Amino acid sequence: MRVQSLSIQGSGVWNEDAVIQNDVQRIYGVIDGATSLVPFRGPKGETGGRLASELLKRFFEQVPADDTRDLEQLTREANRMLGLEMQSNGIPLDEKDQLWTAGLAVVRITDHYVEYVQSGDCMIMGAYTDGAVRMVTKDHVAHIDSESKQIWKEAIGSGVRSKDKLWEMVKPRILKNKEKMNTPQGYSVLNGRSDAELFIEYGKINRIRLEELLLHTDGLYYPEGLMEELQSPEEALFRQMKTSGLTDYAQWLVNLENSDPECIEYPRFKISDDKSAVWIELD
C-alpha cells in the first residue's frame, strides 16, 4: 500500500486543514477546520479552526494498535474532546457562532474492507480496476454553500467587482446558516456538542477490485466553470488528480485562484482555500 498526502495553506493566516496518518492502525484522513464568526485566538495566535483540526489530528494519530473501537466511536470521543477544549477556553457551547468546528473524512484500511467516517464536506472517493469512480460520501454543506454562492453570483451580475464588498453582502446569510449546523435542514460538522454525533456518517465498503482511495477537503474542488458538462465536481477532481498528481494539480489550482483575486471569474468566498488530500494506492 502506498500513501501520498499534501496540505497547503490558502490565503488565510493559518492552515485550518490537517492530514491524519496513523500507519499502526492504518487510519488516514483529512480535516477541514472552520473558525468561529466570533473572533478567538489561541496562545500562539491560532484560530479556532486551526485548534480544532490540530486537536482532531492528534487524537486520531495517537490511537494505539490495540484499540478496537470503530471509527464512529473514535469520532464521537474526538468530538467530545473538542467540546471540552472549547469549554476550557471559555467558549459557550450553546452559542453556535462561537464554536470551533471541523469537517472530516477518515478511513481505516483492513484486508477485506475499508471502514470510513465522515462529517461536513470532506469527501472520500474510490477507484476500481475497471476505471469506475465511486463517491463514498456526500457533501453535506453543498446546498448551504449554494445559497450563499447564489447571492455572490447575483451581486457580480449587478456589477459588484470587489471581493470585500461581495463578502459583506453574503456574510448575513453565512451567519444565519451557522444556526443550521447539525440540524435536519442544515449540515453536519463536528463542533463539540452532542448533536454533532447524530449526523456523523459511518460505514464500510468491501475491497473487491478497489484500487485507489482519494480523501480531500473542499479547497481542492475543480473550478465550476471548467468542468465538462456531464461531470460532477468530484469526478472532475479525481480525473484531474489522477492525470496530474496531487502536488501539480494543487499548484495549478492555486495559480488559477491567484489569477482571479476578486473571486469574480470563479465565484468563491476567499481567494484560495486551504487544500488537503490523501491518496491511497491499495495492494
TrEMBL record:
Domain named PPM-type phosphatase: residues: 11-253
Coiled-coil features, chain-numbered ranges: none
Highest taxon listed in the record's lineage: Bacteria
InterPro entries attached to this UniProt entry: PPM-type-like_dom_sf, PPM-type_phosphatase-like_dom
Stretch forming the signal peptide: none
SUPFAM superfamilies xrefs: PP2C-like
Protein name per its UniProtKB record: PPM-type phosphatase domain-containing protein
Originating species: Paenibacillus campinasensis
Taxonomic lineage of the native organism: Bacteria, Bacillati, Bacillota, Bacilli, Bacillales
